[in-house]
Amino acid sequence: MKTQLLTNHSDLRQKAEKNSLEKRFTLSLDAPKANFLAINHELLVHQIELEMQNEELVNANKKVEQLSEKYIDLYNLAPMGYFTLTKEGEIVECNLCAANLLRKSQTLLVGSRFGFFVTEVSKSVFNQFIEDILSTKETETCVISLNVFNNTDTDVLLTGHITRDDEHCLIAVTDISELIANQKKIAKLECFNGIFIDRELKMVELKKEVNQLLKKAGLENKY
Q1: Dihedrals φ, ψ of 80, to 5°?
Q2: Gyration radius of the chain over CA positions
Q3: CATH code, residues 79-175
Q4: How many of the other CB atoms lie within 10 Å of CB of 169?
Q5: CB atoms < 10 A from the CB of 216, how many?
Q6: Nearest to 172 by CA among 153, 187, 185, 157
Q7: Is 52 helix (H, G, I), strand (E, B) or coil?
């Protein structure tokens, strides 16, 4: 966000002219009044212009610092993990959620390689993900597993794109381990349900066959 400064030179000049009237001092009668007054007036106006510009810059810097602090707070308190990686996969920056996901401090993570936390099974997927980001310049996604604290594998969704200067990769990381676990449970239940239904259908067919055999033998149906 650009901070608005006094860019209109004529407005600044008018304000300086007005302020200079309050600061003008009485000159000696022996001095060459015409030149001295003109030069002194210009110097005084220029000095006031510089003072006003400096005040504007100080205020602008304060606003920039305030915005920067807000950005840092929002970045660190975001419920999603964010990483900034070099093209080689080195971590340049990460937020608090990202550090918590890897069970490491932000300070320790900076300078380390993100690929170190990727499981062997997922390394080829991750490498292709980074390669696609660098080559297509488009937003890419993939699902991989991260090896974190106590060798626990965590399933995550990565969403990334390259920065405008083509120097870094911005990666958003979403923990989907619970979702994957639920999907596996559902798959098991569906498999069990399929087996159960298939067994029931076979039982129905067997009962029909038994009844047919009983009928041929002149006996009453059992089922």
Answers
A1: -120, 145
A2: 37
A3: 3.30.450.20
A4: 23
A5: 8
A6: 157
A7: helix
Residue type present at position 68: S
- Domain map of the chain by residue range? 9-76, 79-175, 177-223
For residues 5 and 130, give the distance between their C-alpha atoms in angstroms, rounded to a whole number. Answer: 41
In angstroms, the CA 67 to CA 61 distance is: 10
Asked whether 53 and 12 are in contact (CB, 8 A), the reply is yes
Span 23-49, pLDDT tens digits: 544 444 444 566 767 777 778 777 888
Tell me if 83 sits within 8 A of 168, measured CB to CB.
Answer: no
Residue 84 dihedral angles phi and psi, to the nearest 5°: -115, 120
Token code pair at residue 93: 């920056």
Per-residue pLDDT tens digits for 83-115: 999 999 999 999 999 999 998 999 999 999 999
pTM for this model (two decimals): 0.58
Q: How many CB atoms lie within 10 A of CB 185?
A: 10
| Alpha helices in 78-163, H assignment, sequence order | 96-101, 106-109, 123-136
- CA dihedral defined by 8, 14, 19, 22, rounded to 10 degrees? 170
Q: d(Cα 103, Cα 86) in Å, to the nearest integer?
A: 21
Q: How many CA atoms does the CB half-sphere of 28 hold within 13 Å?
A: 3
**Pair 91, 44: CB distance under 8 Å:** no
